[in-house]
Amino acid sequence: MSTSVNTFIEEMVRPAVRDTDSDAYRWESAAILGYIDNGQQIIVGRHPSAKYTDNTDIVLTVPKVTAGGTLGICDRWVSALLHYVAAQLLNEDSDDAANASRAAVHQAQFNEEVYK
C-alpha cells in the first residue's frame, strides 16, 4: 500500500517544517510536490525496488505525483522522502541560522537512510 500525497504533505511534511497554519502556509503545495518528485527519483535511482508498483513492470522512473494521488515509492522509503523534502524546503530559508541547521539535520538523515 502506498501513502496518500495529501496525507504525506499535511500530516508529515508541513509539521516537520513547522508550516501548519493553513491560513498562511509558507510553502505552496505545488513547490512541495516538486520536491516530492525529485526525492522519489533520487530514492528509486539508488534503490530500484523502492518504486511502488502493483504489477510486474518495474522502471527506474516514478510518475509525477498529484495532490489527489499516492506516492510512487514503497512505504519503507517514506521517512527518507520526508527528510529530503523538509531539507529542500528549509534550505529555501537557510539565511535563517535555525532553518539552515534544521535543513542540515534533515539532509543528514536522508543521506543516512538512502546512501547507507
Can you put this structure into words, describing what you see?
There is one protein chain. With 116 residues, this protein is mainly α. The protein has one domain. It has four helices and no strands. About 5% of the residues have low confidence.
Strand residue content: under 5%
Which term fits the overall shape? Answer: globular
Radius of gyration: 14 Å
The SSE string, one letter per element, is: HHHH
Level of helix content?
55-70%
Number of domains: 1
Low-confidence segments: 55-60
Q: Total number of β-strand segments?
A: 0
Instruction: Return the average pLDDT rounded to an integer.
Output: 89
SS field, number of helical segments: 4
Which class do the helix and strand fractions yield?
Answer: mainly alpha
Distance between the termini: 25 Å
Largest sheet: none
**Quaternary assembly:** single chain
